[in-house]
């Protein structure tokens, strides 16, 4: 494995992979909501994601109000996959803190 990036594999039958390099990104078991809008269309909210790297922290006005977020990138191929909620300011949005938005358009369902 020398010189190669460590890639984490998820267990379970229903795994979403990075569309570009096919490493695991998240498990269907960790979907909190499928009712989100990303930059590229539909997006899913996950409580957990793997093989991602975080971009710089920034304040962003989303349809549900002001949030502190980081864009997230595939740690293997560096494609942007979505964003992570660092902080929500509206009490009704606090549940999203620490969760991940993955763009449906950037995910691959392989074998299911
Ligand atoms: Zn990738």
From TrEMBL:
Q: Which domain of life is it from?
A: Eukaryota
Q: Residue ranges of the Yippee domain?
A: 14-111
This protein's record includes keyword Cytoplasm: no
State the Pfam families in the record.
Yippee-Mis18
Q: Which InterPro entries match?
A: Yippee, Yippee/Mis18/Cereblon, Yippee_fam
- Recall the GO molecular function terms of this protein's record: metal ion binding
Keywords, comma-separated and alphabetical = Metal-binding, Zinc
Family statement: Belongs to the yippee family.
- Write the protein's name: Protein yippee-like
């Amino acid at each position: 494995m020398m010189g190669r990036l460590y890639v984490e594999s998820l267990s379970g039958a229903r795994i979403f992979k990075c569309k570009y390099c096919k490493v695991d990104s998240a498990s269907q078991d960790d979907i909190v909501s499928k009712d989100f809008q990303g930059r590229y269309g539909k997006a899913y909210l996950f409580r957990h994601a793997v093989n991602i790297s975080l971009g710089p922290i920034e304040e962003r006005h989303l349809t549900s109000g002001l949030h502190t977020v980081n864009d997230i990138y595939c740690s293997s191929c560096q494609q942007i996959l979505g964003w992570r909620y660092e902080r929500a300011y509206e009490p009704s949005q606090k549940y999203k803190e620490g969760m991940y938005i993955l763009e449906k358009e950037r995910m691959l369902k392989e074998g299911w």
